[in-house]
């Protein structure tokens, strides 16, 4: 009987190490990351899927072959597929994190049914630069998949970010949503939002104000749509939060399914003062010490 993602249990390697942002500046770096990823997949007998945006899929295969990797053989056997992000991430339509999260669960089931030990996915993410709305939903997606995908499935995912194709601030925000980073160093964004490594929830760090309102809105969407019954929002690294941002987060907490309060951990004094001034905002939140 074919194994399914629901029956194998969590993978041995932690989710923190299996979902990484990869930032690179030139074609040589891209090729090195590509070859490392595929060699590891072949060694682990995992199915592999590469989703190309700025790169010709044929060039991906040629690069692997030039490095001595039998990419064509892996492609013929079905172990490796190289396709456009328009088919894998559905970027030709409105980007839908819920649909994509469901897709990865089904894809891992298929990999098991085909006899592989897991699934490895590489995606070129610079397409998020083309549309602000897609970038906002991409941040929501990157925040949610740590708990909804990588903690549950034997899936390894590398998100490729080409510095040459992305604005500096958007790159910093999206790369910062990952708990593991490989490749070029990336400075911290004005407001960093990332999943918690040890509990369902998210961490905000830096400053949340008018200039970061789209980031706050994406974090709020992740809070609302994450299905975990209890979420923590760690604010220990946050040194500024304006009233508008707190309202956005409070509204998100109010629209979560069920009646469980959003737990605010390590709230800085500014947040406590705002909640004292506007106690109605705290009706959907529980401020606790961690």
Question: Mind explaining what this structure looks like?
Answer:
By secondary structure, this protein is of the alpha/beta class. The chain folds into two domains: 14-188, P-loop containing nucleotide triphosphate hydrolases (Rossmann fold), CATH 3.40.50.300; 190-290, Transcription Regulator spoIIAA. Helix content is 43%, strand content 23%. It is built from twelve helices and eleven strands. The chain has helices spanning 5-8, 15-18, 27-43, 57-66, 71-77, 85-88, 97-113, 132-150, 168-176, 213-225, 243-254, 269-277; strands at 19-24, 47-52, 80-84, 119-124, 155-162, 180-183, 191-195, 201-208, 232-241, 262-265, 285-288. The strands form two sheets. The protein has a six-stranded parallel β-sheet with strand order 3-2-4-5-1-6, with helices on both faces. It is elongated, with a radius of gyration of 20 Å. It starts with a helix and ends with a strand.
User: Mind telling me which CATH architecture of the largest domain this is?
Assistant: 3-Layer(aba) Sandwich
Number of strands: 11
> Which CATH first-tier class of the largest domain would you pick?
Alpha Beta
Number of helical segments with 4 or more residues? 12
What's the order of the H and E elements?
HHEHEHHEHHEHEHEEEHEHEHE
Q: What is the third-level CATH name, the topology of the largest domain?
A: Rossmann fold
**Uncertain regions: pLDDT < 50 for 5+ in a row?**
1-10
Sheet/helix structural class: alpha/beta
Strand fraction equals 15-25%
First-to-last CA distance: 44 Å
Total domains: 2
Oligomer, anyone?
A: single chain
Integer average pLDDT: 89
């Amino acid at each position: 009987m074919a194994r399914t993602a629901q029956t194998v249990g969590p993978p041995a390697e932690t989710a923190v190490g299996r979902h990484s942002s990869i930032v690179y500046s030139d074609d040589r770096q891209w090729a090195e990351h590509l070859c490392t990823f595929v060699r590891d997949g072949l060694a682990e007998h995992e199915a592999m899927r590469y989703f190309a945006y700025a790169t010709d899929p044929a060039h991906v295969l040629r690069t692997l072959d030039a490095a001595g990797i039998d990419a064509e053989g892996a492609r013929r056997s079905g172990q490796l597929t190289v396709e456009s992000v328009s088919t894998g991430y559905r970027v030709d339509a409105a980007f839908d994190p819920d649909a994509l999260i469901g897709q990865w669960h089904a894809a891992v089931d298929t990999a098991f049914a085909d006899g592989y030990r897991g699934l490895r996915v590489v995606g070129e993410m610079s397409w998020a630069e083309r549309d602000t709305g897609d970038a906002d939903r991409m941040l929501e997606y990157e925040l949610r998949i740590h708990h909804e995908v990588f903690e549950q499935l034997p899936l390894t995912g590398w998100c490729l970010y080409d510095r040459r194709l992305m604005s500096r601030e958007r790159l910093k925000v999206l790369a910062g949503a990952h708990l593991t980073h490989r490749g070029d160093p990336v400075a911290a964004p004005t407001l960093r939002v990332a999943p918690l490594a040890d509990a369902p929830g998210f961490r905000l760090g830096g400053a949340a104000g008018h200039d970061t309102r789209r980031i706050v809105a994406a974090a709020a969407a992740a809070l609302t749509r994450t299905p975990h019954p209890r979420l923590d929002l760690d604010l220990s690294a946050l040194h500024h939060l304006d009233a508008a941002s707190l309202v956005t987060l409070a509204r998100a907490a109010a629209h979560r399914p069920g009646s469980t309060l959003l737990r605010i951990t390590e709230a800085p004094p500014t947040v406590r003062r705002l909640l004292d001034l506007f106690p109605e905002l705290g009706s959907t939140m529980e401020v606790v010490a961690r």
